[in-house]
Each structure stands twice: as structure tokens, then as C-alpha cells.
Amino acid sequence: MKKEQRIKKNPEFQQVFREGSSMANRQFVLYYLKRENQTAFRVGLSVSKKVGNAVVRNRIKRYIRQAFLELSPHLRQDADYIVIARKPAADFNFHQTKNSLIHVMGKAKVLQKKVNSDK
């Protein structure tokens, strides 16, 4: 993902938390905020130390970034997304992570097209 598609600064995170909506499942919490005049979506990631050591946390973040990359044609482009990983996500492989994200995004109604999650 490009640098412009990342949310890094605390005030940007706080704005999505305050003004946005959220949806959750057992593995992830998804916050999303619709933004006017934005051409591409932005993603912020948060994985607590409670989830696992640095290797586990970085693997989860890689999986989430790759899932967003693969799901980008189906996502609203005019929004910011923040994904908070919960402890059960530590045991997931990439396909389980992607399917869990599809599930929580479907609940949040942020997917524009039907996603085939058969893998």
C-alpha cells in the first residue's frame, strides 16, 4: 500500500474513533469514517502487545495490509478504516484473516460489491 493510504498520526486515529462507526467480530474491530474529497481509502492498524510478541503482531499487520490490497476494488474509496486486532487473530493464517475481515466489513456494509471468499 502506498504511503498516502496509511493513517499514522494520533489525531487522525482519534477523529475516526470519535466521528466514525464501528463493527466487530471475535478477531477484529473495524472503525470506518466516510470522507468527502478523498480519492483513495486510508488504513490504520493497531495490534496490542497483548496479542503476541513482535513477530506475531507484525505478521497480523502484514496479513491485514495484504487483505486490504486484495479487497481494494470492493471497498469504498472515500473512507478511512482502522482495524484493531484482537487476541484470537494471532492464530489465523492469511486466508482466515481475510475471511474474518470480509465478515466484519460485510456487517459494517463498507463493501460495494459481493466478495468471493471461498479460499
Q: What features would you describe in this structure?
A:
The longest helix has 18 residues, at 54-71. Helix 2 crosses helix 3. This protein has three helices and four strands, in the order αβββαβα. The protein is an alpha+beta fold and 119 residues long. The two termini are 22 Å apart. It has one domain: Ribosomal Protein S5, domain 2, CATH 3.30.230.10. The chain has helices at 10-19, 54-71, 94-108; strands at residues 21-24, 28-34, 42-47, 79-85. Strands 1-2-4-3 form a four-stranded mixed β-sheet, sandwiched between helices. It catalyses: Endonucleolytic cleavage of RNA, removing 5'-extranucleotides from tRNA precursor. Belongs to the RnpA family. It holds the Pfam family Ribonuclease_P. Keywords: Endonuclease, Hydrolase, Nuclease, RNA-binding, tRNA processing. Consists of a catalytic RNA component (M1 or rnpB) and a protein subunit.
